Give the backbone structure.
Amino acid sequence: MEKKKIPAIFKEDLQNFLQSVNELDKIEQSERFCLLCSKLISLKNIQLIIPRKGDSYDYVCDSPTCVEEYNHNQ
Ligand SMILES: [Zn+2]
């Protein structure tokens, strides 16, 4: 199996990471959506966190289709 190029953030660290970048509140308030399918992002379905310019982040949900599509577009 080919290795993914995107660094994974372990689930245990996810909450701490999101807190540190001030994104945890946004996710808990249902204000973040999957970049590909626009599904609501929650702590349970985050697959990828993609840093953007400035202080914002994009998210990809745990749908295999979304992850694959994102990797293809890189
Ligand atoms: Zn998605």
About this structure: Residues 34, 36-37, 39, 60-61, 63, 66 surround zinc ion (CB under 6 Å).
